[in-house]
Each structure stands twice: as C-alpha cells, then as structure tokens.
Specification:
This protein has 447 residues and is an alpha/beta fold. The chain contains 19 helices and 11 strands. It folds into 3 domains: 55 residues; 308 residues, Aldolase class I (TIM Barrel, Alpha-Beta Barrel), CATH 3.20.20; 53 residues, no CATH class. The longest helix has 21 residues.
C-alpha cells in the first residue's frame, strides 16, 4: 500500500511535514499506523514509521529525555515515582489508554519502554514501538514530552564470555537503533557481568562499571544536538540477593573513575527482592513477594545525596499487591518498571475470546515445549511463556473487534489510574514543563 492515506492529511515538501487538518489527522491515524505496522515492504514500512513520528512532532507530541526532571530529583526528591511501562502487545491501543488517563489526571511523568528481550519476542523494533506510541499520542490529543526508553539494554553473560567484543557491538547496535528511533532514555544493564569470584566488591563490580562507562560514552556520542540522553545503570542482576550500599558505592565510584564524559548516570537499578514476571505457583497464581523497602530507601537516599542521582529504580514490580505501590514514593524511589501485570490483565480478561486464548496457548505448547522445566505445571509453563504469544499473532491481536478490545482496555485504564495515583504522578505535567525542554529532532522525509 502506498502513501495515499497520508497525502490526504499532511503535506510533505522539501523533506518537511506540515499538517493540513489536525482533526483529520486524528481521525486518520488509526489507519495510518495499521498500514505502517503491517506494510510488507521493509523500505516502505520504515518511511511510514518516520512519517508518523514527524506528524506526531508537528502535532505537539515530542520524543524527549527525562534528564532534566531527574537532575531536579537529584537535588530534591519531588515526592513521586515515575512509572516506566513496557507494552508487549496491542501497543497502539494500550498507549492510547495511557495517554487518555494522563490527559485526564494531568500526568506528565511517565515513560514508555521496551527491553532488549522484548524487542525480540514481541517482534517490535524500536522504530515501530516509537511510531505506535506517538501515533497513540496523536489520536488522544496528548501534547508535550513523550519519554521513550530502552529498558535492560543488557549484555548477555554467555554471549559475552564467548566473544566480549561481539556482544558489546550488538548492544551498541541496539543503542544506535533506539536513539535513531528517538529513544532518548537508555538503561544500560551490564550487571550480568559482575564477577563474584573476586575478593573485593569493587573488583566484583569492575566488569559492570567499566562496560557501563564504555556504553555510556557511546550513547553520548550519538546524542542529537540539544538533547542529553538520560542513562541508567544497574547493580541488581547477579547474586540473587538484595543490593547493598557497598555495591552501590563500588559501582558508582568505579563508573565515575572510568567514565570521562561530562554527564554520567541519572539513576541506579537495584535488587530488593522482586523477580521479573513474579514468582509463579503451581496453580498459575503469583506468590506474594516481600520487597525490602528499607534497602530501597537506604540506597535511594545514598545515590541522591552522595552522587546526585535521581534515586533508585525498582524492576519487576507490576505483579505486586496494590498496597505496595504507596511505598515507592515514600522510600524515594525515582522510577518503577511495570510490564507483566498489564499482560496478565489482557490474557486473563473474561472479554478475551476463549478460542483466541486457546489458539495462542496451543501455539506456545508446541513452539516452546523445549522451554518447559522439569516439574513445571501446565499453568506455570503457560504463565512463563505467554509473553511470547504477542509477536507471532500481532495482526490477530490488532484485528480483534472493538467490542472485545474496548472492555479489556477499560480494565487496563482502571489499573493505570490506580498506579498513577499511588505513585503520585497526578498533576506532574507542570514539573515536567519546568524541567524538560522538548527538542524537535527533525527527520527528513522522502516519500
């Protein structure tokens, strides 16, 4: 399919997009993003994604770095925790819900993110993800900074041990791809390389901070003019235990001694007892997990006071009980990553047709049978693999009828309102306006 539908709503002259009719753009964007995502020609698909991004920027939704807000939080914690939301499926629809709730509650501090692993199994490259999110902003009339983040841009230990240079180059490639797609927030995770065989904590953390510094320098080399990308580091991957002040200082001191740039890290991810996706019991339900909030508060205070970071980041939190979320602003946590809980709402909704759910589960049982662990019940297996049921059925998910999708989106909307409220990000549009200056990075469009 060509660009006929685009030509009706925008002008493209000398590589620059101008909007003919804003209301017509909003009404057309559903079809435009669908055509782009499912365009069979790779070159045409990229052109359409780029055009959608430029349309969004002209409509006032501008990909931005959250660096300015986090620098302010490094001086004085502002009393709220920024939700970073991973969307694995129905990305356009879910993003619309988030923007709708953000407009209603005057929320400015929220992040859309996707991890290295998710890019693979959800079949969403960074450019597609950013185009879907920005198209949703256009559809809902959201204006202001839109924060897109590369989550867990991670070195895989087994690949690194086999060929360190190749693994680093792979992560560099992913960083470059994401920044070109206007992800101006990048979480570098080389905590997988921590070497617990070393005697001192500093030496244990050395492979982590040295490779973080190397990749952070690469991020800085790719920054568009006027943008300081927000970079996160991590100490919480290896060891299966909660992070300590000694580990935080070793990592951050090592990074400071190694990194030669002017702007370093803006936050630090730590381990406080959670697990990505939660701990699944044999009947498929999620075990109650006890987060060490004392550790989270201690480390957030430490990194803020001693290193001027925004605070600590909590991963794997979306399956926690509702009452736990009040604690994150209380402990000074600057950011929290949320993914599986939203996936669970979609898959477990009574509004999702049973035959559709069964089709996906049957596919998982066949395609991923080798991933089933000894002693794992069918419920545990399905729960741990169903995240991989979005990518192969992307068009089927997208094409579900509105009378199926709308009630599922209503369930998600309730969850987002609850989380935004408990994380205290209502009415954060003003602080974002004060601390973040959106910069339009213009991309030349050639149809």
């Amino acid at each position: 399919m060509g660009f006929e539908k685009f030509i009706d709503v925008v002008d493209v002259k000398d590589g620059k997009v101008t909007i003919k009719d804003k209301e017509k753009v909003k009404k057309s964007i559903d079809n435009l993003i669908f055509d782009a995502v499912f365009e069979s020609n790779d070159e045409e698909r990229v052109k359409k994604f780029l055009l959608i991004k430029e349309i969004a920027k002209e409509m006032g939704a501008i990909p931005s770095s959250i660096q300015g807000l986090y620098e302010e939080m490094g001086k004085n914690f502002l009393g709220f925790t920024v939700p970073a939301i991973n969307i694995r499926g129905l990305t356009y629809d879910v993003s619309r819900v988030i923007f709708r709730k953000a407009i209603e509650k005057n929320v400015g501090a929220f992040i859309f993110e996707i991890a290295r692993s998710e890019i693979g199994y959800t079949k969403q490259r960074p450019l597609e993800y950013s185009a879907c999110v920005l198209a949703a902003a256009v559809r809902e009339g959201f204006t202001g900074p839109v924060f897109l983040q590369g989550d867990h841009f991670q070195t895989v230990r087994r690949y690194f041990e086999k060929d360190p240079q190749m693994e680093i180059e792979y992560v560099k490639g992913l960083i470059k791809e994401a920044i070109e797609a206007e992800f101006y927030n990048i979480d570098i995770d080389t905590s997988t390389l921590v070497d617990l065989s070393k005697e001192t904590i500093y030496e244990q953390q050395r492979p982590n901070f040295e490779n973080t510094a190397l990749l952070a320098h690469y991020v800085r080399s790719l920054e568009p003019k006027g943008i300081t990308i927000s970079i996160g580091g991590e100490i919480g991957e290896i060891g299966g235990k909660n992070s300590t002040p000694e580990e935080a200082r070793a990592y951050l001191d090592g990074f400071k001694n190694t990194f030669k740039g002017e702007k370093g890290l803006s936050k630090l991810s730590v381990q406080t007892g959670t697990k990505h996706g939660g701990v699944v019991l044999p009947d498929g339900t999620i075990a109650q997990v006890k987060i060490d909030f004392d550790t989270l508060k201690t480390l957030s205070d430490l990194v803020r006071k001693e290193y001027s970071l925004s605070g600590c980041v909590q991963h794997g939190a979306s399956t926690l009980p509702e009452e736990a979320f009040d604690k994150f602003p209380e402990t000074g946590t600057s950011e929290i990553h949320l993914a599986t809980g939203f996936q669970n709402i979609i898959f477990d909704s009574k509004h999702l047709p049973e035959d559709f759910r069964k089709m996906i589960y049957d596919y998982l049982k066949t395609q991923f049978a080798s991933e089933r662990k000894e002693g794992q019940t069918e419920e545990q297996f399905i729960y741990s693999t169903r995240k991989k049921g979005f990518g192969p059925f992307k068009k089927e998910w997208w094409s579900l009828p509105n009378n199926t999708k709308e009630p599922i989106m209503a369930e998600l909307e309730q969850k987002f309102e609850l989380l935004f409220g408990k994380l205290k990000v209502f009415n954060t549009k003003e602080i974002i306006a004060k601390t973040v200056v959106p910069v339009k990075v213009l991309v030349e469009i050639r149809l």
